[in-house]
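S2.1 Query sequence (Histidinol-phosphate aminotransferase)
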Amino acid sequence: MTSLDDLPIRDDLRGREPYGAPQLEVPVALNTNENPYPPSERLVKALGEAVADVAGSLNRYPDRDAVALREDLAAFLNEDTPGAGLTSRQVWAANGSNEIIQQILQAFGGPGRAAMGFEPSYSMHPIITRVSGTRWIDAHRDEDFGLEPARAVAAIEEHRPDVVFLTSPNNPTGTALPLESIEAVLAAAPGMVVVDEAYAEFRRAGTPSALTLLPGNPRLIVTRTMSKAFAMAGTRLGYLAADPAVVDALLLVRLPYHLSAVTQAVARTALAHGAELLGTVDRLRRERDDLVGWLRGEGFTVADSDANFVLFGRFPDRGRIWRGLLDRGVLIREVGPPEWLRVSVGTAEEMAAFRTAMKESV
Ligand SMILES: *Cc1c(COP(=O)(O)O)cnc(C)c1O
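Output structure tokens follow.
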């Protein structure tokens, strides 16, 4: 049998493991930060109609530049962050924000270049960075998972990275960054600064979005996704807001017709039902705050969360707890610093199942 090692694969890919959050069939899946509420019957019907509408012209390539979808996304962001004043020229979309990140690295990273992040953070940032031939530098977060501006600036000045990744709210810790940290990084960074806001819609009241920093900062990119709060992980739609020149740069590296007509139609329909889809966000935030309170009440250490998941610990043998929960039908994520576990916020029933399983497992 041929193995990977027998193939003339790139040397820098040898020995690598593929990305792998376990995809297991379990009654209670709290491991990938999805929104637990499926689309309503009304939305399912609208999605079916939208797909039927494009089905008759699937012999043709889709709109390569996804202009109508980008207009809808700009309108959504302007509602999310009043004063953002974005136009469709400042918005770009792709198959998940992972593809957005890949395009950013293809345009601004590459061999001989470096990207910096602050771990623990989103595991795909270093993975996509390395696959693009870019060197990865981990300047790590502070002990409390925050990012002290002076230390971040010192790391940037030392390494002069071409791309800096900031994740806010951060995955897997849930930590939102104050704008001062982002502004300090922007002022120091010689290259692009990407603020990954996959969980922005879950942030607590009064936590600003980096979208407010876009005017006058042409090297800032804010990425968002429809996979989390928008409850559309299966659609694969991620997007960014940035200076129009950044979009021009990404046009150089994107594959032609990368976003299928079906994806564009489904995403636009979901955006048209945005109020309904995002209607679950407040419920999930309350559930999150209750979860943080409960875990602390049980004596666990819990990181503050502005997202739809909670990082908690500390367990000298976290694998035992993870397995104990799984044995009871509850799948969470063994991720982040050793001794910590991450649980996504689900429905009230799912959280009750989690609490019961936790009590039995510890
Ligand atoms: C889940 C997640 C994404 C989303 O990726 P998609 O490709 O849009 O599904 C991006 N960034 C972070 C930090 C995430 O946790």
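Residues 322 and 332 are 7 Å apart (CA to CA). Residues 33, 96-98, 122, 167, 171, 196, 198, 225, 227-228, 233, 238 surround pyridoxal-5'-phosphate (CB under 6 Å).
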